[in-house]
Amino acid sequence: MTLQHPVFARWPARHPDRLQLFSLPTPNGVKVSIMLEETGIAYEAHRVDIMANENQEPAFVSLNPNGKIPAIFDPSGPAGHPVALFESGAILLYLADKTGQFLSADPAIRYETIQWLMWQMGGVGPMFGQVGFFNKFAGKAYEDKRPRDRYAAESGRLLGVLDTRLAGRNWMMGDDYSIADISLLGWVRNLIGFYEARELVGFDRFVHVQRWFDRGLARPGVRRGLEVPAA
C-alpha cells in the first residue's frame, strides 16, 4: 500500500495502513496524540520541527495550508476513502466520530461537549499562548508589562470559569471523560509548567482545576500522548 499525498515525499510512511500523525508535543499537538492513545487507534507519528520551520515546507503546507501542527492523514476515512485534516479541534471531533469514543451520541450532551471544546479553541488556547509569549519567550524582555498582565488576568478569568464548571464534577461533562477534557489538559500543563506562569495567574486558588488536572495526568493514555512524537 502506497499513500498518495505530497507530504509523504518528505515524511515517508513506514506503516501506510495506519493513521498518520504530523505533530510535535505542543499543547495543540498533544490533544491529538492523547486522543489517539486513549482510543487505541493504530497510528504512525511524524515529528514536524516547528523551530526549524519544517511546518512551512511545501510538503507540510500541502497537508495543512495554514502551516500549523497538528495534522493527520487517515488512509481509512469515511466510506473507506482517505481523508486529510488539520486544526486540532476538528481532528478531535473526527476521531471521536470515527471511534465512537469520548463524545456522547446524545445530541444535547454532544453539543454541550462541543461547546466546551470551542471554548478551549477560542479562549483558553489563544490566551494561555499569549501568556507564554510575554512571560517565557521574546515578550519577556518587554519593559511594558501591561500586555503580559492583560493576558494573565484573562487567563485567570478563564481558569475561574473552568474551576466553576468542575465544581462537583470529575470531568468537564460530569462522570464521562471527553474530548473537552483532552483539549484542555495540555494547555493547563504548559501554562503552569513550561510557561512558568503558575504564580502569575494564581493557579493554586483553583482547587477544582487542580484536582481535575491531577486526575487527567494519572491516565496512562494522557501520559503516553504527552510524549508523542518522541524527540
From TrEMBL:
Residue ranges of domain GST C-terminal in the record: 106-231
Family statement: Belongs to the GST superfamily.
Organism this protein belongs to: Caballeronia catudaia
Highest taxon above the source species: Bacteria
Domain (GST N-terminal): residue spans on this chain: 16-103
InterPro entries: Glutathione-S-Trfase_C-like, Glutathione-S-Trfase_C_sf, Glutathione_S-Trfase, Glutathione_S-Trfase_N, GST_C, Thioredoxin-like_sf
GO MF term set: transferase activity
Protein name: Glutathione S-transferase domain-containing protein
